[in-house]
Specification:
It is a single chain. The protein has three helices and nine strands. It has helices spanning 2-18, 27-30, 47-52, and strands spanning 21-23, 41-44, 57-59, 67-68, 78-81, 88-91, 97-100, 105-107, 117-120. It has a five-stranded antiparallel sheet. A hairpin with a 5-residue loop joins strand 6 (88-91) and strand 7 (97-100). It is globular, with a radius of gyration of 13 Å.
Length: 126
């Protein structure tokens, strides 16, 4: 577990260096932000989808495994976690992961591949 957290921390640091943006929101604001109703993790394929608050796929089940993403979510440019106390662990084709905390949004860095899997955790910190 310690190794996973160290790797995850390094990936987050690397991701931030590559321009991945994560923005926070208060839990009260998380309920309906960006067109994403509670308790979902919503994916937006394009910038236009994000701007229109029109998600292209959404997930809400807490699982003990990664779910492969549907075609509406693979390669998404934005992801928003509307859940109040559950983190969403995003998986990438490189094998890396990123923990999207409750009420936070994530944006793919320019030219980077979007997520390929999701695991909604029963913990805000994944």
């Amino acid at each position: 577990m310690r190794l996973q957290r160290t790797i995850a921390g390094a990936l987050v640091t690397a991701g931030l260096a590559l321009g991945i943006a994560a923005t926070g929101a208060t839990p009260a604001a998380a309920d309906t932000a960006f067109g994403c109703g509670y308790p979902q993790v919503c994916f937006y394929k394009t910038q236009a989808d994000w701007d229109a608050r029109r998600w292209t796929a959404a997930y809400k089940d807490v699982t003990s495994y990664f779910q492969n993403l549907s075609s509406g979510a693979v390669g998404a440019k934005w992801v928003h976690n509307s859940r109040n106390d559950d983190g969403a662990l995003l998986r990438f084709s490189s094998g890396g992961t990123y923990c999207l905390q409750p009420g936070w949004s994530w944006q793919t860095a320019p030219g980077a591949a979007g997520p390929t899997g999701i695991r909604i955790m029963d913990s805000p910190t994944c």
